[in-house]
Specification:
This is CADH8 protein. Pfam families: Cadherin. InterPro entries: Cadherin (IPR039808), Cadherin-like_dom (IPR002126), Cadherin-like_sf (IPR015919), Cadherin_CS (IPR020894). By secondary structure, the chain is mainly beta. The protein has 4 domains: 92 residues, Cadherins (Immunoglobulin-like, Sandwich); 102 residues, Immunoglobulin-like (Sandwich); 109 residues, Immunoglobulin-like; 97 residues, Immunoglobulin-like (Sandwich). The chain has 4 helices and 31 strands. The strands form 9 sheets. It has a 4-stranded mixed beta sheet. A hairpin with a 6-residue loop joins β30 and β31. The N and C termini lie far apart (154 Å).
């Protein structure tokens, strides 16, 4: 409280002191400038001074008057008196002429060549130019000869609080992880004030939050923004709009202020487990589905985003763990169930699986909240497909003697419909494999019969294809190869290759010439 009272008093008295410094030269400036006089032997007027005056002048020679002050932005109906130059050589007889040169001489600053009064002719801005260096000299009015060496001095423009703080880098954007502890650093803002940072409190800034509490706080002097509430949840609110104020004069009443905005976004952390949209899924699949084909998708939703929302799926229980597999769709994060092995409706009509979704990237800070995984049950029903007939053997081998009678049965093929409906089967011969139509087949029972005589010496093997077709669905067709071997019988007498060999055989001397 004492410090606050002191600052308030300083703020009240500072403008009065500045005004007093400015006006004082016009009231009592001449003695202060007597330090710039020439040696006493150079003037008759100086000889007339009594001893007391000379002592006074000597004591005042120790004063330094090389600075004058003028308030910036001060204006009125008349030029502003900045100060007065005076030399001991001036007895008041108008023999002395004062000359001013340097920064702004004759334009901004004008000197009365008789009295030495210096006036500011224009309103001054310290932020544009803080000081002016000028040179004063006293010369003889008649001869313009210097009466003393030139003297350099400075006119300083005294600051007033005429500039509000500015955030030149705003508006700001910052990011901080959700669920951060209170006091976590968010960002730092910076305001600048064009007023004099050395003189007074015109550029002494204090920062505060106008909007954004109670979620965030700002350090009044460093402008560091920190979190002010624990457990801020991105899933509840992701973005905050914060208004920051910088006020000069140390934040006291009467100070100027500027504002900026800071958009603060909560970044995601893995603080949410995956959760299946439903606890039970039902899928159906045809028994003839191709291996690797997807039969259904499951979805475990995660309120987090990005890497924190990624999950992997596994089948952890069930009677179809070796029949099905589940993989993760990298784009949608769905679990895709596929067939690994062939299905058979007639063997097993349904399966029950238990699938699990688990986060890939775990944040240890939140493990106490429970396991970052979830499970669901998947029931899969296998539907009967209209399958083609199935032969009792993948191939058939039949044997027949070449002298077999026509229409004799060579053998039989059998096939059945594996479907529950069990459609009747009709058999036929693919005539592209029996162009000479040597064989027939009974369409009802699959018995193969001989249609034309056989001759082993002409053809030992006959390869034909038997076709089985469902009577209820002619598109369901199966084929099986049938190999028929013709067996030899003694149906050919010996024959001589030539008449000479036959003659030898008749003479009882075969093999001799």
């Amino acid at each position: 409280m004492p410090e606050r009272l002191t600052e308030m008093l300083m703020d009240t008295w500072t403008p009065l002191i500045i005004l007093w410094i400015t006006v004082l030269p016009s009231i009592y400036m001449a003695p202060m400038n007597q330090s710039q006089v020439l040696p006493s032997g150079s003037s008759t007027g100086l000889k007339r001074l009594n001893e007391e005056q000379r002592v006074l002048h000597r004591s005042r020679r120790g004063w330094v008057w090389n600075q004058m002050f003028v308030l910036e932005e001060f204006s009125g109906p008349e030029p502003i008196l900045v100060g007065r130059l005076h030399t001991d050589l001036d007895p008041g007889s108008s023999k002395i002429k004062y000359i001013l040169s340097g920064d702004g001489a004759g334009t901004i600053f004008v000197i009365n060549d008789k009295t030495g009064d210096i006036h500011a002719m224009k309103r001054l801005d310290r932020e544009e130019k803080a000081e002016y260096t000028l040179t004063a000299q006293a010369v003889d009015r008649d001869t313009n000869q210097p009466l003393e060496p030139p003297s350099e001095f400075i006119i300083k423009v005294q600051d007033i609080n005429d500039n509000a703080p500015e955030f030149v880098e705003g508006p700001y954007h910052a990011t901080v992880p959700e669920m951060s502890l209170v006091g976590t650093f968010v960002t730092k803002v910076t305001a600048t004030d064009a007023d004099d940072p050395v003189y007074g409190n015109s550029a002494k800034l204090v920062y505060s939050i106008l909007e954004g509490q109670p979620y965030f706080s700002i350090e009044p002097h460093t402008a560091i923004i920190k979190t002010a509430l624990p457990n801020m949840d991105r899933e509840a609110k992701e973005e905050y709009f914060v208004v920051i104020q910088a006020k000069d004069m140390g934040g006291h009443m009467g100070g100027l202020s500027g504002t900026t905005t800071v958009t603060i976004t909560l970044s995601d952390v893995n603080d949410n487990p995956p959760k299946f949209a439903q606890s039970l899924y039902h899928f159906s699949v045809m028994e003839d589905v191709a291996l690797g084909e997807p039969i259904g998708r499951v979805k475990a939703n995660d309120l987090d985003i990005g890497e924190n929302a990624k999950s992997s799926y596994d089948i952890i229980e069930g009677d179809g763990m070796d029949i099905f597999e589940i993989t993760t769709d990298a784009q949608t994060q769905d679990g895709i169930i596929r067939v690994r092995k062939p299905l058979d409706f007639e063997t097993k009509k349904s399966y029950t699986l238990k699938v699990e979704a688990a986060n890939i990237h775990i944040d240890p800070r939140f493990l106490s909240g429970g396991p970052f995984k979830d499970t669901a049950t998947v029931k899969i029903v296998v539907e009967d497909a209209d399958e083609p007939p199935v032969f009792s053997s993948p191939t058939y081998l039949l044997e027949v003697h070449e002298n077999a009678a026509l229409n004799s049965v060579l053998g039989q093929v059998t096939a059945h419909d594996p479907d529950v409906s069990s459609s009747p089967i009709r058999f036929s011969i693919d005539r592209h494999t029996d162009l000479e139509r040597q064989f027939n087949i009974n369409a009802e029972d699959g018995k193969i019969t001989l249609a034309t005589p056989l001759d082993r010496e002409t053809s030992t093997w006959h390869n034909i294809t038997i076709v089985a077709t469902e009577t209820r669905n002619h598109s369901q067709v199966s084929r099986v190869p049938v190999a028929i071997k013709v067996l030899d019988v003694n149906d050919n007498a010996p024959e001589f290759a030539s008449e000479h060999e036959a003659f030898l055989c008749e003479n009882g001397k075969p093999g001799q010439v």
